Amino acid sequence: MAESDGLELETQQGSMCNLSCFPKPKFDLILHPISNLYISDVNSVWRECYRVLKIGGALLASFYNPVVFIGDRDPAYFDQGIIVPQYKLPYSDLKAHTKDELKAKRERGEAVVFGHTLTDLIGGQIKAGFSIDGFYEDKQPNPRFVVDKFMPTFLATRAVKR
C-alpha cells in the first residue's frame, strides 16, 4: 500500500517500552493499536511515546476495556451467557495460569497477555504529559467474552503533546 501511494517507510524493530533508538523527538504521529495487551507496564510506553513525539504530535491509542480481563474464560460460561468474575486488575497471564498452562498456551502459539487499569491506560497518558482531546469506544464485531454482548469493549484515545 505504501508503494502504491508513493510513501517512503523506514522500519525499526525494538521494544515499545524502550524507544532509545530514537534519541530525540522525531514523530508527528504514533499509532498504538491494542499492542499494550502484550506488555506488563503500559506506563513506560506512554512515557516513551511522549518523549519521541514532536510538540503538537498525537498518539492514537486503542486498548481493551479492562472489564474483559476479570471474567473466567471457561467456554461453558460463554455458552450460558454467564460472567464469573475471577481475576483482579491489573491482570497478568503470568499470575493467572500455572506453569503447565503457560507452557501449553505457548505451544499453541498464543501470546502472554496483560490487562491494565483505566488509571494506567488513560491516566498514564496524562501522567506522561499528554493532553487527551479525543475518546472513542466501539463494540467487538465478533464477541469473544459475554461482556462484549452488553457494552463496547474497545477503547481509544487521541492524546497530544503540547
TrEMBL record:
<dbReference type="GO" id="GO:0008757">
    <property type="term" value="F:S-adenosylmethionine-dependent methyltransferase activity"/>
</dbReference>
<dbReference type="Pfam" id="PF08241">
    <property type="entry name" value="Methyltransf_11"/>
</dbReference>
<dbReference type="InterPro" id="IPR029063">
    <property type="entry name" value="SAM-dependent_MTases_sf"/>
</dbReference>
<protein>
    <recommendedName>
        <fullName>Methyltransferase type 11 domain-containing protein</fullName>
    </recommendedName>
</protein>
<feature type="domain" description="Methyltransferase type 11">
    <location>
        <begin position="5"/>
        <end position="60"/>
    </location>
</feature>
<dbReference type="InterPro" id="IPR013216">
    <property type="entry name" value="Methyltransf_11"/>
</dbReference>
